[in-house]
Write a structure and sequence with these properties.
By secondary structure, the chain is an alpha/beta fold. It contains four helices and four strands; from the N terminus they run βαβααββα. α1 crosses α4 and α2 packs across α4.
Length: 131
Amino acid sequence: MKKILFVCVENAGRSQMAEGFLRKFAPNIDVLSAGTQPRSELNPNVIKVMNEVGIDITNQKPKELTNEMISKSITVNMGCMDKESCPALFVKDVIDWNISDPKNKELDQIREIRDQIKDEVMNLIKNLEHK
């Protein structure tokens, strides 16, 4: 089975949350996240809201997206819509979730984004199990 690759621009929020949820709820699935312009560290508020649901992503590091990652993975675009910053949009067979960026958002808004990502990950797991 191919890897699941969660992609966003900075790989500091959405894609990291998705990777954390998939690791927790489907540990048998190979998962990775990356970004086209990765930050030096994760969004601290993202780490905080993930800890609230028992998922520690403290040791995760933003990674730069490569063509090799895309070619060996089922790619999930977390919501970036800019061709310049998110070339994963134009890869064949991309799953597009259109989730808001948690950057510069209040904790309650980040919790809503986290919960939306969890729902999407759970649906993805169901779909993968039925294939």
